[in-house]
Amino acid sequence: MGQNLTEEQIELLRRPVFAHVATVMPDGTPQSTPVWIDTDGDAVLFNTAKGRTKTRNLERNPAVAISLVNDENPYEMLQLRGRAELVDDGADDHIDRMAKKYLGEDTYPFRQPGEQRVIVRVVPEVVVS
Length: 129
Known about the structure:
Order of helices and strands: HEEEEHEEHE
CATH topology: Pnp Oxidase, Chain A
Strand content: 35-45%
Radius of gyration: 14 Å
Largest sheet: 7 strands, antiparallel
């Protein structure tokens, strides 16, 4: 069962702060990646491409941990754990919205030929802030 995000946590997730996502490698070791972060108010979202290490890890084992800090106040932090759901629908539009949020660009400028984007949606099971 999920844990609700507070209004303060949602506000932090809507800011252009970077998060670190930890997934589990096939040998059980952690793998951490900085990502752009988002929320739909209930879940934490990030966007990635199919075939990347974190995507492969999440397809095999959906356990994920995410942490971030407020860049204006590093003592304001958010840490959560949950299970990832990979969503294809709307992923291209989502990465363009993230490019606007983080870069001020209307479209994601780093798209690679043939790249398939995916939204990773994480409903928090444990939240610490």
